Description:
Structural class: mainly alpha
Number of strands: 0
Number of domains: 3
Number of helices: 13
Largest sheet: none
Distance between the termini: 17 Å
Radius of gyration: 20 Å
Amino acid sequence: MNKHAMGTALAVLLASASCAAYANDLTHSSAAKLAQQPATPERAENSVNEMEKLFSGSSAAKQVGNSKSGAVSTLMHDAENIRHEAHEALESKNYAEAIHLSNEAKKAFFAAAQQAEPGVALASKEEGDFKHMLDSVNALTGALERTAKESGKNSDAALKNIHGLVKNANNLAAEKKHVDGRKLLDKAFLALKVAIESIKQGTTVTAQKDNSPKGIYEYEAFRNDTYLSLVEMFMDERKKMAIASDTDFLNDVRLASEIRKEGLASGEKKRYEEASKRLGDSTSIYKRAVRRAGVPIFD
């Protein structure tokens, strides 16, 4: 069973999700209960790295940094403490705790961002749209680099083109031409999606699928894991997304998770054909939930 293609597909989906606009919904979710995946070193490192990008490289970080509010300062002090604890947990190889704390740090960070003085956040809607798209392009660029590395493909030409577009867009923004700069970012975003999809298709066709009942079951389990991971991101790591409180989305996730448990239970009993069908049904519902979040499905 080739797990490589499923990892690449997940990278594409996660990258596509990053284009969603920031929202202020910090509602607690039940994602932790849904996720049954091990807290691996890779997952912990990725979670901490995403936290660091948020604290040091996002437009929200600039918003918080420019705030003169005492309340924001207090909230950020708490967020920084949790951030430090997340790094300590990672260094101690307590991977589950590192994932948990990095998510809590992001939640605390966004609580501070919500309290930041509105007058210093964004000078205009055009500037705000530009910054949000720039964040999305930067996130998607990172996803392209990871996907290319994972697949062994060379993405230098695509990245050179994208970096050029981003540089020109930033130059226009510096001249207060945010609308024109946003158009260049849109081109960069589309170029990134095409590049990632090209890599994804090139690796997917090489995946070897074992057509035995057990092999098909394992294949369906990997597909299901892919979409569960994406849903987990929406509900846990990306609590700022409004979809995390959407009733239809949550109902889909609950139903898909129940069917997933049935499929895995059948698999443990070696009833592979029954298990594959249940996992396929679960995956279809997870995909419907992902579409509700506005994320295109390539699978």
